[in-house]
Amino acid sequence: MPVILAIESSCDETSAAVCADGNILSNIIANQTIHEAYGGVVPELASRVHQQNIVPAVQQALLNAKVNKNDIDAVAFTRGPGLLGSLLVGVSFAKAFALAKNIPLIEVNHMQAHVLAHFIGDNKPAFPFLCLTVSGGHTQIVLVKDYFDMEIVGQTLDDAAGEAMDKTSKILGLPYPGGPLIDKHARSGNPDAYKFPEPQIPGFDFSFSGLKTSILYFIRDNVAANPNFIEENINDICASVEKRIATILLNKLRKAADQYGITDIALAGGVSANTGLRQGLLQLGEKLGWRTFIPKMEYCTDNAAMIAIAGYHKYLKGEFIGQDVAPLARMPF
């Protein structure tokens, strides 16, 4: 029964988890509030806070799991993609821990781990399945043939869906992080109040740069006519933007599912916590007869539990890496 310590530090969450025989025993996430004053993640500050958080997060993960550090059989860690300085903290800690205990190191691709979060718990998709992976930095449709046999069949050509939400929140003057606030306002708004364009991109690829520009001009022109436009209509604006982003994502996903003849459909990544997108997938799945899968909220955003489950399956395959490993800001899928 392998016991794996997992480390995640790709952006601004410092996370540690413990996994025993494929079961998550603990999952600690330390968030960074320092970025709120800047309206976004400041890479240098993120790496410094990771240094402060990494040891307490690991200690708490071991404590919650009721596992002694001497019982750990391997250390899994996020190698990339992500912010280089942030990754360096996690990679360095993982290497030091593994070296001190003379145990194996397991590198994990952050985006693959988001997909494999679906294998935490009992409700698992069957291979092959399609996974729509949506975050602040990535938007992908992934054909998952096996645990580590994945093919990106569609992806954004420019900006990610999460970035479009973040940009909208800034335009509206919402504090960072804006995504959850857009979701909150959208719950009280009319999603059909305003119409935003859907990019006409061939195949299964996405584009959100044009949508961002459309939202910017829409707000600019309406505020020029009515300085109180945002304040008076923020719920409807958020609901309409959220609906357009969700329909762009789900229309492409439906197209891919039709072409590949796949009915096991999954959603992953930080934006999978968005209420409108989750409900949209469930409704579409019910209409089309899909089996739909969405991780628990704690496994949607960046977390070490998904690194642990990915590390567990790599441990079973004996896929270890040496101490000369370095973080990768961009890591091949």
Structure description:
The chain is of the alpha/beta class and 333 residues long. The chain has two domains: 3-115 and 300-317, Nucleotidyltransferase, domain 5; 125-294, 2-Layer Sandwich (Nucleotidyltransferase, domain 5). It is built from nine helices and ten strands. The strands form two sheets. It has a five-stranded mixed β-sheet, with helices on both faces. A five-stranded mixed β-sheet has the order 8-7-6-9-10, sandwiched between helices. α4 (161-171) packs parallel to α6 (209-225), α5 crosses α7 (229-260) and α7 packs parallel to α8. The two termini are 28 Å apart. The model has no long low-confidence stretch (mean pLDDT 95).
Topology (elements, then pairings):
Layout: E1 3-8, E2 14-20, E3 23-30, H1 43-65, E4 74-80, H2 84-101, E5 105-109, H3 110-116, E6 129-134, E7 139-146, E8 149-155, H4 161-171, H5 179-186, H6 209-225, H7 229-260, E9 264-268, H8 275-288, E10 291-293, H9 304-317
Parallel strand pairs: 1-4, 4-5, 6-9, 9-10
Antiparallel strand pairs: 1-2, 2-3, 6-7, 7-8
Short description:
This protein is α/β, with parallel strands linked by helices.
